[in-house]
Specification:
This protein is mainly α. Helix content is 71%, strand content 0%. The radius of gyration is 46 Å and the shape is flat. The termini are far apart.
Amino acid sequence: MERDGDQLSARPALETEGLRFLHVTVGSLLATYGWYIVFSCILLYVVFQKLSTRLRALRQRHLDQAAAALEPDIVVKRQEALAAARLKMQEELNAQVEKHKEKLRQLEEEKRRQKIEMWESMQEGKSYKGNTRKPQQEEDSPGPSTSSVIPKRKSDRKPLRGGGYNPLSGEGGGTCSWRPGRRGPSSGG
């Protein structure tokens, strides 16, 4: 009997020591890594929720596709709707093409009319460009239509630099050229 009493008294001591050890170990683990564990649990929960909704949607899509494959009426309706949408888009494109062709025709007609006017003015001995400027001058100033000062056209002006000049290229800059200084130590006392 004594032996049974020793075992009973020894057992709670081992259990309390085990609980104390577990309490100290878990307590130090939570004290050190507690926030990391909390945030990782929250992150796992959010990821699990997202994945579960996507998996449900994926399963539903597979079920819908299987049902649609079994029902040919739905497939036919879907194909008809697709064909109608394509036809509508093609009609819109054709309308845009017709508008563009009409604009091109109008531009061609305008060019042809201008050529005819230029040819008629040449037959009369007038300059075509002079004819186009006279109505503009008459609208601008009510004075006499002939003026002694003819404004210079911009195309007659000489460009300041050549067409290939680029200030960032470092070429053709004339006498001004910048060079970086030496990289070595300064030679001064």
